[in-house]
Amino acid sequence: MPLLELKNLHKTYVMGMVQVNALRGINLTIEEGEFIAIMGPSGSGKSTLLNIFGCLDRPSFGQYVLGGEDISTLDDNALSDIRSRRLGFIFQSYNLIQQLNVLENIEVPLYYQGRSERESRHRAAELARVVGLSDRARHKPSELSGGQQQRVAIARALANDPLTILADEPTGNLDSTTGQEILQMLDELNRRGKTLIMVTHDDDVAAHARRIIRLHDGLVESDRATAR
Amino acid sequence: MILFTLHKTLKLGVNSLLRHLLRSVLTMLGIVFGVGAVVAMLAVGEGASYESQQRIKRLGSDNIIIKSVKPPDDQQSGTSGHGISAIEYGLTYDDAEIIQASIPSVKVVLPVRDIPKQIHHGARVIENGRVIATVPWYLGTTNQRVQTGRFITSRDVHDNATVCVIGTDIVKQLFPCENPIGKSIKVSGCYYIVVGVMALETSTKQSSGEAAVITDVNSAVIIPLTTALSRFGKTIVDIKSSSFSAETVELHQITVKVDNVNDVVPVAGMVQAILKKNHHDRKDYQMIVPLELLHEIESNARMYTIVLAIIAALSLLVGGIGIMNITLASVTERTREIGIRRALGAKRRDIVIQFLSETVLLSIIGGVLGLGVGFVIPILIKTFTGMNVIFSGWSPPLAFSISAIVGLVFGIYPAYRAANMDPIEALRHE
User: Fold this and answer.
1) CB contact under 8 A, A57 and B424
2) How many whole angstroms separate alpha carbon B390 and alpha carbon B420?
3) What is the pTM of this model?
4) For position B329, what pLDDT does the model report?
């Protein structure tokens, strides 16, 4: 059974008077443990696709089957639940909560799983150690560099131990050295069995993936494995 | 599990409020003063209402009081007694007897005469003294007590005895440093032996209407009714510096005590009918029914309470709108945080609870502080005006629930706005 499957997936927005066809019939199958880069010019629908993968948005037409379950028809609560249990997010602009320190940020996904405070604190400390930020555990995001913030975000994405991690231009705001560090961490995660779906427009970044899907105008233009 | 979730939610709320301490405190002020106003006004209102009810109760809720009143000039009829032209009006012994005889549910009829006289003891004089002439059951009917000695007995009445019971003011003025019992005082040339002293009647603060009814025993000399009749006759001559007037009044007041409180109103009607017939429609008496006054006061108190409630509700409304306003601003400011939380698995419900817990927490803390304000204000009022205030035991739970409800009601809209944001839009928010 594939990890996730898109069948003739459409997404249509209405912006004012204009109807925008962001996705116009996507068919994809993704297996567990893959490392996928989604590429394409802006407006090609890659962000929309990632939002649908992330259960933040619902398709207008077609099916999205995740873990054997058609989730196109689920309600908001059920989608929140899937995000909480099965998905991890990494954003271009890190999206840490500014008022919370490193540990508290890592704990946020655990909060919505109803974990006990002690358990959450313990797991957050462990993850901070994994991403090499134990000495910054009590710092606020504003006191961290971009790379450090993105490492907090990765720790946070791992907190609920999801099968799939979705990354939206994870190195977009970082210099190339720091970006490389982050990409190495993602490689490491993939080696440990996490499925990674990453949106990027940078060929060098995409080269870390095992499979590159190019979108154009809401359709899959090409879908091939990389040399790795 | 629920307790655990509650603890986590509260912690999140407290942390968020502490992060903007000044803003939280300022937002709270509306609730502080709103709840403070509710608690303070309740205490003051309760005190005022208790005070007036006490005064009416002293008149006796099962009593009907009829007073002699000087009729308007055109209704006066002259009569000659002792060679002086005297105005004759008011209640008579006849009235008292007919009321007693013809209305079955009347328990007691208490006739009273109230005569202004000078009172002497040795060299000491009270110029504006008053003599109350009455019967032994005066004590029980008016709920008063004798402090030392005894009250007038039926034997005194039967014998026209020259005995008297005096009030505490009289004791102070005529017997400043001796025991008055057994001593005699002089009224209109006659000596009366003091047999008792009335207990001090406290709370003599009287409002209009009522002052006419309650006879102040502290400054009165009480003698048997029969003695008064034989010594003073029916006509009272009052000589003032320039004018000279005489009145013939048999009884100044009749108090009718009824068996059962439920009978008060029908009996009052019957008494009214009897007096109307006896007095040939002459308006030389006035009837006061304390029970009706009590009802009147109670309905006034209800009105008062409604007005207070409206004022309090308005101030709470303003406080609530303040909370809503700040929370809406806070929701906008934290749009991105909401998006992040939603992406990381928060349900709409979690977001609602997060914001509601903040508003409820804020307003409950405000309510507790308001309770403090609501205790301090009445104490200040009491200190500076001497008004009676009463704190009822349900003020704290009331303050608590009012503030919790305000927090809930005015938090719901901002919380739902937060929860219904599109997570994708929220994440893009700068």
Assistant:
1) yes
2) 47
3) 0.73
4) 93
